[in-house]
Amino acid sequence: xxxxxxSFIVKDxxxxxxxxxxxxxxxxxxxEDDHSWLEGLVVTEEGRPGSDSLAPPESVTSALGQEVPxxxxxxRDGKRIHLHQYHGKALLLTFIYTRCPLPDxxxxxxxxxxQIAEQVRSDPKLSASTQLLSxxxxxxxDTPAVxxxxxxxxxxxxxxxxxxEFATGTPEQVRKVAEFFGLRYWTDRGQIVHSxxxxxxxxxxxxxxxxxxxxxxxxxxxxxxxxxxPPKM
Length: 233
Hints:
Elements: E1 9-10, H1 15-18, E2 24-32, E3 35-45, H2 58-61, E4 72-75, E5 80-82, E6 90-96, H3 106-122, H4 124-127, E7 130-136, H5 144-155, E8 164-168, H6 171-181, E9 185-188, E10 191-194, E11 197-201, E12 207-212, H7 218-228
Parallel strand pairs: 1-3, 6-7, 7-8
Antiparallel strand pairs: 2-3, 4-5, 4-8, 6-11, 9-10, 11-12
Helix pairs in contact: 3-7
């Protein structure tokens, strides 16, 4: 499995003075409320020559400007959906799984989407021109019924799915979508290890923005949605 990037907060301040790119470390992952961090860092392996590149994977950046294939998935009602059905609207999509234990990973993506969905509902222009889509990378557990219950919990409105869809599929279908957008994930000791990728697809079906990691802000995305929203007829 190739390398991938996951961002963690580090509370051991000494680490920023001595750690170097390419080094391997071990640490304790602490989870509390809606945050997680690493502490008790120990350097386990020194970096090797040529291992200090921090450039984003080519697979992530290559989606920019590309038209999204007409991937087929199942929504939270078990109905077949196709990504091309969203042509004519701005499509904001991300990848999650409902059992994710890290509050600043999948749960944060869903909290961000909930904020964006609320903004979309309150703005007539965005309401008519925006679709949100959360795709589970854990299709064996995240059945349509599980996603429906999760979606109702996340959206918290009388109409949770009016602008925000939740989808799954076969493992092969989901992985094809993830690979197109440069998402990497695998299962390790019962948990899914994964990067974070959120993408903005223009009304013409082409990818115009890829947000990597968890430091993007809902307000930033809403602003970009307004910029690309087609004019009201």
